[in-house]
């Protein structure tokens, strides 16, 4: 579904990474680790078409990103649920409307979708009518996850989804991701959280990749 | 555009309300519509004036005969026979006393004792086709009817007709200028709104919004604002014109500034046109900004 081949990226200075291959297939579960500043977030942005590789090919659902216009990228993004590291919302809209935003912009009504169930599941029922700036860090991350999965996308990409939440909540997030993965969705999570990785490996076949010294390699068996 | 106005409530909410660009747009649209009403009235009135003068007055002229007592009738007959044989004149008719009195009445009142005054005899000349050769006619009249003076309206009215025609063109030009500056102002306001909402646009893109969706939220808003403002401005302008003091036809140009009959429907086109201008201006601004910020 998402394929990277010989990909390199540079923000203008030196290359952050090069000769990078990655393939997200239905039902695959990947973790991406690596030191801060290694380029994990950058790599994820390549995967959902926000950045375009400086070398190599990125294909989203079979189409080369370089040949896609913005409208096609927008359509591809509806099939990819993304939890961003900095969780950006529309600060003037209540949380519930923010979570329903992917439905709204793709012209679907949020009526009949299980937005209430989803809000309850991420524990935000009480906050539904609050504005995003009024949420705690962990609540923001849960809202971001709810927004990422509301379209039941084929691929779920999460950047540090458990950065601000407690262990119990991160277990619930993981359980949701595992459940979605079992439904055949590809999952890619960038994280520093080794306990999260270990917990996941107990439940699914997860591959752990490490971005280090400009290369993407499989992590050691200790993970 | 109908679908645009019917609207998508949620798309509207996606972009936060922006105070100053909203007020700027409404105010600009109102002010411009107000001006447009007057420009329209001006060009309609001058158009009417130019048409009337050109149409009626250029086609008739008057021959004035002031002869000493006793010769008046003979000279009038002589003049009529000269006129009858002049090419380019379809009819010539001596005005009766009543007609003369009616002509003078607006100036001297109804009690003018026409009989006792040395009022010249007037002959109305109706031109045919291209008209007659005024210089040639004058020469013949001088020889045969010494008391005749040819009053040829065309000559002195020509520059007036010309001026009225130009005034009408200026009115039309003013309307175009108003439309153009409305478009420019709304483009600026829309650009400011887009710039202020950069973050919103980024979030919308991240969740898969296409440019047309994002643009629509802005376009709809600015179109509605322009429509609202223009409705208010047009209403105010029309009221202003309606309240212009009524004067009789002799009042001439200034009091002729109003709309006549079906002409009152024309300014009603201003609000939809303003909305159309706002629609086009915002849409092109939005798509341009979105293209640049990819
Ligand atoms: N827009 C940008 N322009 C220039 N440099 C950038 C930009 N975004 C990121 N970088 C740089 O690229 C490098 C990789 O950044 P990235 O955010 O991908 O790292 P990361 O692995 O996600 O780090 P972290 O674990 O802290 O989130 C960093 O050195 C960062 O400073
Ligand atoms: Mg990062």
UniProtKB/TrEMBL annotation, chain A:
It comes from Oceanicola granulosus (strain ATCC BAA-861 / DSM 15982 / KCTC 12143 / HTCC2516). This is Cell division ATP-binding protein FtsE. Residues 2-223 form the ABC transporter domain. Keywords: ATP-binding, Cell cycle, Cell division, Nucleotide-binding. GO terms for biological process: cell division. The keyword Magnesium does not apply. Gene3D superfamilies: P-loop containing nucleotide triphosphate hydrolases. GO terms for cellular component: plasma membrane. PROSITE patterns: ABC_TRANSPORTER_1, ABC_TRANSPORTER_2. Pfam families: ABC_tran. One of its GO terms (molecular function) is ATP hydrolysis activity. PANTHER family: CELL DIVISION ATP-BINDING PROTEIN FTSE (PTHR24220:SF470), IMPORT ATP-BINDING PROTEIN (PTHR24220).
């Amino acid at each position: 579904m998402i394929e990277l081949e010989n990909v390199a990226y540079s923000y203008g200075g030196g290359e952050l990474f090069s000769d990078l291959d990655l393939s997200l297939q239905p039902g695959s579960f990947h973790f991406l680790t690596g030191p801060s500043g290694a380029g994990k977030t950058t790599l994820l942005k390549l995967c959902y078409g926000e950045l375009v590789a400086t070398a190599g090919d990125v294909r989203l659902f079979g189409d080369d990103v370089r040949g896609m216009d913005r409208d096609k990228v927008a359509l591809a993004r509806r099939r990819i649920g993304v939890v961003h590291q900095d969780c950006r919302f529309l600060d003037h809209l209540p949380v519930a409307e923010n979570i329903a935003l992917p439905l709204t912009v793709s012209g679907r009504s949020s009526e009949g979708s299980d937005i209430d169930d989803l809000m309850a599941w991420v524990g935000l029922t009480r906050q539904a009518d609050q504005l995003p700036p009024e949420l705690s860090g962990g609540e923001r991350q849960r809202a971001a996850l709810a927004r990422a999965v509301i379209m039941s996308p084929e691929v779920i990409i999460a950047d540090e989804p458990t950065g601000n939440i407690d262990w119990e909540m991160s277990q619930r997030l993981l359980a949701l991701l595992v459940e979605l993965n079992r439904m055949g969705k590809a999952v890619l999570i960038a994280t520093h959280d080794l306990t999260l990785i270990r917990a996941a490996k107990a439940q699914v076949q997860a591959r752990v990749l490490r971005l280090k010294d400009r290369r993407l390699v499989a992590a050691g068996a200790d993970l | 555009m109908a679908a645009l106005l019917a609207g998508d409530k949620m798309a509207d909410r996606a972009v936060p309300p922006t105070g100053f660009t909203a007020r700027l747009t409404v105010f600009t649209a109102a002010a411009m519509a107000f001006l447009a009403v007057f420009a329209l009235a001006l060009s309609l009135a001058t158009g009417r004036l130019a048409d009337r003068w050109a149409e009626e007055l250029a086609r008739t002229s008057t021959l004035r005969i002031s002869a000493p007592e006793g010769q008046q009738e003979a000279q009038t007959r002589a003049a009529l026979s000269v006129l009858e044989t002049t090419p380019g004149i379809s009819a010539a008719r001596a005005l009766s006393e009543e007609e003369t009195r009616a002509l003078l009445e607006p100036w001297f009142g109804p009690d003018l004792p026409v009989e006792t005054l040395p009022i010249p005899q007037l002959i109305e000349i109706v031109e045919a086709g291209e008209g007659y050769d005024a210089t040639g006619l004058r020469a013949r009249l001088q020889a045969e009817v010494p008391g005749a003076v040819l009053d040829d309206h065309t000559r002195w009215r020509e520059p007036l007709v010309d001026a009225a025609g130009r005034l009408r063109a200026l009115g039309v030009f003013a309307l175009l200028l108003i439309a153009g500056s409305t478009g420019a102002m709304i483009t600026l306001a829309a650009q400011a709104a887009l710039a202020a909402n950069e973050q919103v646009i980024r979030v919308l893109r991240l969740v898969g919004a296409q440019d047309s969706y994002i643009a629509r939220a802005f376009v709809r808003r600015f179109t509605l604002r322009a429509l609202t403002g223009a409705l208010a401005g047009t209403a105010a302008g029309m009221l202003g014109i309606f309240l212009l003091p009524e004067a009789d036809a002799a009042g001439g140009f200034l009091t002729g500034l109003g709309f006549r009959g079906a002409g009152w429907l024309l300014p009603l086109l201003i609000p939809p046109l303003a909305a159309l201008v706002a629609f086009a201006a915002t849409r092109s601004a939005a798509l341009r900004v979105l293209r640049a910020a990819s």
